[in-house]
Amino acid sequence: MRYISTRGGVEPIGFSEAVMMGLATDGGLLLPADFPVLNAATLKGWAGMGFSDLVVEVMLPYVEGDLSREELTDLVDRSYRGFSHSDITPVVRVGDMHILELFHGPTAAFKDVALQFLGNLFQLLLERDDGHLNILGATSGDTGSAAIYGVRGQKRIDIFILHPHDRVSTIQERQMTTVLDENVHNIAIEGTFDDGQRIVKALFNDLNFKREYSLGAVNSINWARILAQVVYYFYAWGRVSEGDVSKKVRFSVPTGNFGDIFAGYVAMRMGLPVEQLILATNRNDILTRFVTTGTYKARPVHHTISPSMDIQISSNFERYLYYLLDEDPGQVCGLMEQMAATGEMTVSGEKLKEVQHIFSAVAVSEKQTLEQIRETRAENDYILDPHTAVGVKASKPYPGAVCLATAHPAKFGDAVKKAIGIEAPPPVSLQGLMEKETRCQLLPADTQAVKRYMETTLGSSKK
Ligand SMILES: *Cc1c(COP(=O)(O)O)cnc(C)c1O
């Protein structure tokens, strides 16, 4: 498979190059040049498969030319071995809906499904080139721990994750700092999340440093992450439809950066019988406003009880725009320029109808989120985390929908307690965190201090 950029400025490249590139060099996002489309017999055959086998089938055409079936199978086995449920991403019936539980990975959030795979994939590609990668990122909590667990112990990767000192939840801090592998470097910054982001940005812009130390990002825009997420849409459809290809399913997706729901769109383009994708947001509703009005316009971020969906603009949205604009990079560039110049862009007429045909968008308030957690507990004896609750609330008009459960409720104890008076029992991965040994470096919110720390830690051997 060849990969191209939404902005048209990248000569078609192979899968490995696309994975290592992350963000396209022309500032756009990478996409496969075309989608493999399945026939009904294949789809039916996939319906009964276990998750790991299905990963191989879904991914194979996308990695063709770069990974053999054997290599891919081995990667997949190693990536999903650490999940605590034998189905990896089980589908459970809760009242009149289906919950697709994506939180059985090592950090109890759905990002593990992609990042466990990406860590192993990076390691394999680096081995081929005899390379070393230094991942650098800032986190407000969730992505940092999933990225750390994705690459812990990998010999050709070091990871540096900045978090704001005393400003992430205790569980989140412990999830990161109790990882003692030599290649994991937690840095607590004496400042805010924005300070951390500013430092990371400054270091990536220090082009000599970036090149000398092969800096890479924990990219929410890496194609391999999207690809790993495509799989569970097929998996859930198989469980719900039992292979009846005439059965269309609605998926409700708690959305922030549009990565997860874009994976659903890819599945649909591949021929998965999807009725509609329900795009569920919290108060940070830029995407809901887009689907409803056609205008995409950033507003200041609100901090909510579903923090992983607190975004101003959605980094993966450009991928969908590319398809909406008839795969024409010129039009994508036009709208992105308009966005940069005026802070907004608009689609209308037939194009807006097309958006509304595929997506049904709902913004859910914090009050509604808490009410949903309460209602599902009372009616079905099932505890939702606040992100999942946003999706469940949005799915209410559509009984039978598959709701993606993106985090374990024990990870967001405060919100859950506020809703139902108790916390959810923690899964094994979250137990005993307070007793474990930790390692973390406290540093001032200063770019040079972080740079010196990285240089000292890496020495000359891991450049
Ligand atoms: C990241 C995240 C989301 C949002 O996913 P996107 O791919 O950014 O849309 C939703 N819920 C949880 C728990 C997350 O960690």
Short description:
The chain is of the alpha/beta class and 463 residues long.
Kindly describe this structure.
With 463 residues, the protein is α/β, with parallel strands linked by helices. It has a domain at 91-108 and 223-428: Rossmann fold. It has 19 helices and 15 strands. The protein has helices spanning 15-21, 40-46, 51-63, 69-80, 111-129, 142-151, 170-177, 193-205, 207-212, 223-241, 259-269, 286-293, 317-324, 329-342, 349-358, 366-380, 386-395, 413-420, 447-458; strands at 3-5, 30-32, 91-94, 97-101, 133-138, 157-164, 184-190, 215-217, 249-254, 274-281, 295-297, 344-346, 359-363, 402-405, 441-444. The strands form four sheets. It has a six-stranded mixed beta sheet with strand order 3-4-14-9-10-13, with helices on both faces. A five-stranded parallel beta sheet has the order 8-5-6-7-15, with helices on both faces. Strand 6 (157-164), helix 7 (170-177) and strand 7 form a beta-alpha-beta unit. Helix 3 packs across helix 10 (223-241) and helix 5 (111-129) crosses helix 10 (223-241). The mean pLDDT is 95. The protein binds pyridoxal-5'-phosphate. The site of pyridoxal-5'-phosphate has 15 residues, from helix 11.
Overall geometry comes to: globular
Number of strands: 15
- Fraction in helix: 40-55%
Measured by DSSP, the beta-strand proportion falls in: 15-25%
The appropriate CATH architecture of one domain is 3-Layer(aba) Sandwich
List the uncertain runs: none
Which fold name is given in CATH as the topology of one domain? Rossmann fold
- Please outline the major beta sheet: 6 strands, mixed
Q: How do the strands of the widest beta sheet line up side by side?
A: 3-4-14-9-10-13
Task: Give the rounded overall mean pLDDT.
Answer: 95
| Count of alpha and pi helical runs | 19
Radius of gyration using CA atoms only: 21 Å
Give the CATH class of one domain: Alpha Beta
Which structural category fits the helices and strands? alpha/beta
Bound molecules: pyridoxal-5'-phosphate
